[in-house]
């Protein structure tokens, strides 16, 4: 039972329309599913990914219109990375960010890879990471109708950074429960802080890493718009997910039990640092109820919510997502 890498990351936005403008029109990611939060159907749940919504390429957002600002700090998933094909692609993105007035820090180096740290319009902490020296989990397929460059386009999720005041509970969850391996470390960019630890699973590489930062100088994060809700890791099949559930029970880790999200099945739990982890199956995938050529254009509801469609649509602000390219 080895997790295959990152499956998706889910974050919070206060405005679905502005979120779509940034992630689709600026970053050029494809909206592969326009749905609702299955646990609170009055809010959108938007899924951005590669050409066909491959697992490991998916960044999702729950819309919470009254979400306040995020007060950044500890006990958080503090940074999300997005992979691009090579170092040259980063030059393209610097120019694009300059032209579109996206807040960024320019090209730097992190753990042997060139990166660009940047923020979206809600101060979501993001990084573009070059796959030029990457070995491991393959990237996805850039969207052929992308508003950005297809050649330099985003091909999936890169390392996720977790920030905690005490590393031990999260190290235990990653290594003893989830079978990640510690493969190295690199210096913290913050003077006086411990090195950031690097953990890997499956085939490894940018699509299968968690970076763990210990900060003794921060308060607990107060989440809001621009914060991350959870990180999910890839499980091969329903049968294997059941085995992970049994492993969590054996480890006495409180969990959600297996939840059918229609596009995948999921299992949630928190470590003692209150980090929310999810294990998600690779299938059946986002083309289950929509043609690949028209993913994300209409409001998609799983069958168990279809009889509530009229009520659900009445509670949502209209959001036009049909590509004009």
UniProtKB/TrEMBL annotation:
Q: Does the keyword Oxidoreductase apply?
A: yes
InterPro entries, alphabetized: Extradiol_RC_dioxygenase, Glyas_Bleomycin-R_OHBP_Dase, Glyas_Fos-R_dOase_dom, VOC_core
* Keywords (A to Z) from UniProt: Dioxygenase, Oxidoreductase
Gene3D superfamilies given for it?
2,3-Dihydroxybiphenyl 1,2-Dioxygenase, domain 1
Q: List, for all copies, the residue spans of the domain called VOC.
A: 5-131, 156-282
Q: Which PROSITE patterns does the record match to this protein? A: VOC
Pfam entry (one): Glyoxalase
GO function terms (MF aspect): dioxygenase activity
List the CDD domains hit by this protein, alphabetically. Answer: PcpA_C_like
PANTHER family linked to this entry: RING-CLEAVING DIOXYGENASE MHQA-RELATED (PTHR36110:SF4), RING-CLEAVING DIOXYGENASE MHQE-RELATED (PTHR36110)
What is the protein named? Ring-cleaving dioxygenase MhqA
Question: Which organism's genome codes for this protein?
Answer: Ornithinibacillus halotolerans
């Amino acid at each position: 039972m080895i997790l295959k890498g990152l499956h998706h990351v889910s974050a919070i936005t206060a405005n679905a329309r502005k979120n779509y403008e940034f992630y689709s029109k600026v970053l050029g990611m494809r909206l592969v599913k326009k749905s609702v939060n299955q646990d609170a159907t009055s809010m959108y749940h938007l899924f951005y990914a590669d050409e066909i919504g491959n697992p490991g390429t998916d960044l999702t957002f729950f819309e919470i219109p009254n979400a306040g600002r995020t007060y950044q700090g500890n006990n958080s998933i503090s940074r999300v990375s997005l992979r691009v094909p090579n170092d040259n692609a980063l030059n393209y993105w610097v120019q694009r960010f300059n032209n579109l007035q996206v807040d960024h820090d320019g090209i730097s180096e992190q753990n042997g890879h060139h990166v660009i740290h940047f923020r979206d319009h809600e101060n979501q902490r993001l990084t573009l990471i070059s796959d030029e020296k990457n070995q491991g989990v393959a990237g996805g397929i850039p969207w052929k109708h992308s508003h950005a460059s297809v050649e330099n386009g985003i091909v999936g999720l890169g390392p996720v950074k977790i920030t905690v005041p005490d590393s031990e509970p999260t190290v235990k969850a990653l290594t003893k429960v989830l079978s990640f391996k510690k493969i190295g470390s690199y210096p913290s960019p913050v003077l006086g802080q411990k090195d950031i630890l690097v953990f890997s699973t499956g085939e490894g590489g940018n699509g299968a890493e968690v970076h763990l930062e210990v900060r003794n100088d921060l308060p607990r994060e107060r989440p809001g718009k621009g914060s991350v809700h959870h990180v999910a890791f890839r499980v091969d099949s329903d049968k294997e997910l059941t085995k992970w559930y049994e492993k969590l029970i054996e480890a006495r880790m409180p969990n959600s039990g297996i939840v059918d999200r229609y596009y995948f099945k999921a299992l949630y739990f928190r470590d003692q640092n209150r980090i929310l982890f999810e294990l998600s199956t690779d299938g059946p995938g986002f083309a289950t109820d929509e043609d690949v050529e028209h993913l994300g254009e209409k409001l998609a509801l799983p069958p168990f919510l279809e009889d509530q469609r009229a009520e659900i649509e009445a509670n949502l602000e209209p959001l036009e997502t049909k590509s004009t390219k």
